[in-house]
Design goal:
Number of strands: 16
Shape: globular
CATH class: Mainly Beta
CATH architecture: Beta Barrel
CATH superfamily: Acetoacetate decarboxylase-like
Oligomer: single chain
Length: 266
């Protein structure tokens, strides 16, 4: 294989790339996002500098079903997102992510620095309850529940707007800057990439959205430490379905360059 051919490959291995090139379109992406109050010291510990807590002491626990994802297939993921500040900008930092197939694990880690690990998340309707679960190494570590489409309908699946401002607010929240810590070692084990990487979802089409009360149960586990951000009080939940595009990202902060500058100054 020639050098030009190698440089055109979207990913490894060369005989069968793990994922295709982007941008990546998601159809009927379904979310259960539970917002809860947590411990401010635990939140601070989970945020890499120069990110700072936003002062709300809130955490977002997410269960996401993605049945139609270009380049990645059909999969489900679950994890923790922390509202934070990058300077004067409000951002969301992805602290932990767990999902069930290889392609988006490889692509997410290699391109955007998503902190993805292999596990068994699920999001499904059980009788009158929307239920999200996460199992790691055969043990359940998280369960979230919400009443299924019973309260505060903001948008219906036929496209008939019930609350325009609610839909606009949700779309705005979905386009908020998301931040990941991207760490990739060099062949000698030293860091080759150490960056805060950001991206913004685009082409967002909200197909349905519901909000209401919820419950969240987190179980301590050494390799899936979601319970390290303890649940003090569940504020509420949002269930919605949307189409959106995940574009390539950009570098917010380069730790290697910052470290080199500091050494020169010293």
């Amino acid at each position: 294989m020639k050098t030009d051919d190698i440089l055109k490959l979207p990913s490894m291995p060369l005989s069968s790339p793990s994922y295709s090139g982007g941008p990546y379109r998601f159809i009927d992406r379904e979310y259960l996002i539970i917002t809860y109050e947590s411990d401010p010291e635990a939140i601070r510990e989970q945020l890499p500098e120069p990110l700072e807590p936003d002062g709300s002491n809130t955490v977002l626990y997410e269960f996401i079903k993605m049945p139609d994802s270009s380049g990645f297939g059909s999969y489900t993921e679950s994890g923790i997102v922390i509202p934070a500040m990058f300077g004067s900008e409000k951002v969301n930092f992805t602290s932990q992510m767990y999902l069930n197939i290889e392609a988006p694990i490889s692509g997410g880690r290699e391109i955007w620095g998503f902190p993805k690990k292999l596990a068994r998340p699920a999001l499904e309707v059980r009788e009158d309850t929307l239920t999200g679960t996460l199992c790691y190494a055969g043990e359940q570590v998280a369960m979230g529940t919400m009443r299924y489409k019973q309260e505060q309908i903001t948008y219906d699946l036929k496209g008939e707007t019930v609350c325009t401002s609610c839909v606009e607010t949700l779309a705005k929240k979905m386009s908020k800057t998301q931040v990941n810590l991207k760490l990739i070692p060099d062949v000698d084990g030293r860091p080759a990439i150490a960056q805060l990487v950001s991206y913004n979802m685009t082409d967002i089409d909200i197909k349905g959205a519901w909000s209401g009360p919820a419950r969240l149960y987190l179980i301590p586990h050494v390799n899936a430490p979601v319970a390290d951000l303890p649940v003090k009080n569940v504020i509420g939940a949002m269930h919605f379905i949307a189409d959106m595009t995940l574009p390539y990202g950009r570098v917010l902060h380069d730790y290697l360059k910052t470290s080199q500058k500091e050494k020169k100054v010293a």
